[in-house]
Design goal:
Elements: E1 14-17, H1 23-34, E2 40-43, E3 63-65, H2 74-91
Parallel strand pairs: 1-2, 2-3
Length: about 100
């Protein structure tokens, strides 16, 4: 989508990035933010990490940056512990407590 697809319409979309955009993806994101294709973006992961001091993302008012902390919630940490417990069980020859359902 480009601004010419909906002339006169203000940008309403927000983009939340939880995987590192790199190369063309990062260039496209900066362009979309600068040209108003999207209203803003929130990023938790960067490529490279940390962002270089000259990254345009650091000076954009329509960007919120967090220090790669999306996985640091009580629920996320609990789920990671469950996965580790299951991996150790399988390595030990026991069935996992939380198996992945087979594909349909």
């Amino acid at each position: 989508m480009t601004p010419t697809d909906t002339p006169g319409t203000p940008p309403r979309g927000l983009l939340f990035v939880v995987s590192a955009p790199s190369g063309a993806g990062k260039t496209s994101l900066v362009r979309a933010l600068r040209e108003g294709w999207i209203a803003g973006a929130g990023l938790d992961v960067y490529d490279p990490e940390p962002l270089p001091k000259d990254s345009p993302l650091l000076s954009m008012d329509n960007v919120v940056l967090s220090p790669h902390m999306a996985a640091h919630t009580d629920e996320a940490l609990l789920r990671m512990a469950m996965v580790v417990k299951d991996v150790l069980a399988v390595i030990d020859g026991r069935p996992p407590d939380y198996p992945v359902p087979p594909p349909r």
